[in-house]
From TrEMBL:
Keywords carried by this UniProt record: Membrane, Transmembrane, Transmembrane helix
Organism, scientific name: Trogon melanurus
Keyword Cell inner membrane included in the entry's annotation: no
Transmembrane segments: 155-178
Protein name, entry field: UPK3B protein
Length: 233
């Protein structure tokens, strides 16, 4: 159970439907609490008037508390009920009222059992529980007021892990950048157009001297042909 043990209390699950064949509507069910080394010497009280009370715990080493009607443990009651032993701090102020469920005075260990009490005394009981040891409070003199400083090993390990993480991140960024740059270069090379690095104007043909016409290479200029004569009949 969460928070089952403290320095002065412990919790129990309510044993619903455990006394259906042994208890009547007029019966009551008690919880007997005893130090573990004194549980074997515990004697069931013959009547309610003889029930050992909380105030007798330091001397009698046992007491009975949490008196409830048998209907509180019926099968119809949800099994999630919790009984907290030692949770009634008013017992210390009221001088051990009956029945008292005051804080437990020491870590124990303790044992508990349930006891069915009728008009003529005990009718049924459970076995004693395993020893229950409460939490121990630390001595104030043993508590170091200075905050605990971390050792150098975790700091070095954290630095190494941080450096590795930064290196991996840089490598990933570089790989992504190289891949992006390569794809851009390939795209630019596929769409590039040809161009001239220098503008050279075309050479225009030189005009021929008057009275010359072009001849095959190496023959110079030829005289112009005489005009053709008209044909005669």
């Amino acid at each position: 159970l969460p928070g089952k043990l403290t320095a002065t209390t412990f919790a129990l699950e309510r044993p619903c439907c455990a006394f259906a064949r042994h208890a009547n509507a007029s019966d009551t069910i008690w919880l007997a609490v005893a130090f573990a080394d004194a549980s074997s010497a515990f004697q069931n009280p013959p009547s309610r008037a003889d029930v050992p009370l909380y105030g007798q715990l330091p001397t009698a080493r046992s007491y009975m508390t949490l008196e409830m009607p048998a209907a509180a443990y019926a099968c119809s009651v949800p099994s999630s009920g919790i009984l907290r032993v030692g949770g009634d701090t008013a017992c210390m102020r009221e001088g051990g009222r009956d029945p008292c469920n005051g804080p437990l005075p020491s870590p124990g260990p303790y044992r508990v059992k349930f006891l069915v009490m009728g008009c003529h005394g005990p009718k049924a009981e459970t076995r004693w529980s395993d020893p229950i040891l409460l939490r121990r409070a630390g001595s104030p003199s043993a508590i170091d007021p200075e905050p605990t400083r971390p050792s150098s090993a975790p700091v070095v390990l954290a630095s190494i892990l941080a450096s590795l993480g930064a290196a991996l991140a840089a490598a990933a960024i570089a790989a992504v950048g190289a891949k992006t740059w390569g794809s851009l270069r390939r795209r630019d090379s596929g769409t590039r157009r040809s161009y001239r690095t220098h503008h050279i104007p075309p050479v225009l043909p030189q005009p021929l001297p008057p009275g010359c016409r072009c001849s095959p290479p190496g023959l110079g200029c030829l005289a112009p042909r005489p005009p053709a004569l008209p044909a005669t009949k």
